[in-house]
Amino acid sequence: MSRINRTRHPLLLGLTLTMILLAPIVAAAVSTKAFAQTQVTINGAGSTFVFPLMDTWRVQYNKVHSDVSLNYQSIGSGGGIKQLFSKTVDFGASDAPLSASQTSSAPAQVVHIPESIGSVAVVYNIPEIPTGGLKLTGQVLGNIFLGNITKWDDPQIKSLNPDLSLPSRNIVTVHRSEGSGTTFIWTSYLAKHNSNWNTQIGKGTQVQWPVGIGATGSEGVANTLKGTPYSIGYVELNYALNNKMATAALQNPSGKFVQPTLDSTKAAVAAASGNLPAGDQSWSSVSMLDSSDPNAYPIASFTYILVYKDLSNDPNLDQGKAQALVSFLSWMVTDGQNFSSSLSYVPLPDSVVSHDLDTLKSLTYKGNSLATAVPEFPLTTTCVVAISIAAIVGITVYRRHSAGQYSHWL
Fold it and tell me: What is the pTM of this model?
């Protein structure tokens, strides 16, 4: 009977350690689902930039949480903020942070949760020039959108593109017609580089465009550009790539002309993500324009989820639905990031994920914390780490047993 104590066998010990290490994770998973016993619909609205990713999140989250559905309206950042403030949706999505005036006019305190990263691409439709062939600067782009440069063979454009045979055709500019966070990023870039644009037009989600054609949503701008020869406009990188549109290379502060890509956008993120304000503070000064990285594309930005810090300010939420919303947002900024790259978005860096989870832990419902709906770490990563540690310990124990160090166990 000397070998009947099988629970001390080294391999069984490894399995036991695995169970011990995974127990908190299983408990966390159970706790985040325990509240959602009935069907819940989460309503959001805003950014067209994030819509392809949001629609993927809608499908993927429902696969693992069949009792939670997402209804998202892609109406532009300005519309999302308006609906949040009018309390007709549970969250707004914006490519621009709230301005000081928007913050002061909000019916209750709002927090910023970065949930994706992208860049604004300059896209053109010049049949004679393939993608990547055109080089531009912020100064020249400001003059084009002011209507001060009207021909593609203007000397200011030719000086940047001496190797191109530019057509003597009229330039048609295309812009967003509704309130848009993408427009805020775009006009902020123009204002930074063109003093005339800064004094005459300025920056904002909506501005008085001096020339050009307005179109609704990123889809509208992309379709208008594709159907209008010799046009130029701005769309998010994912729309440019998915629609196979020609993109211009922009000069960054290092003097390098850089194409908008996932890698050049990632380079812009690194410098900006290290010192972010708390979720409930002002984000109006957060910018990823003109990164100092020589490989960075100069027009990159976060896109944000906006929610009330105390979710009871949303009359459509009860305690259970508030917890379901927090759980969904937690998944969005952790496991949901796994779907970003394939859709031409840049996944959030770990530092931003951690920052977001801290913000989500600060949310309340009638003053009661909702932190139990927020995981300590991205769940899949934690599982991998726990299993790896258990496996290493089990193998170590087994090897030492084989060497005779633990022979008294058997």
Answer: 0.77
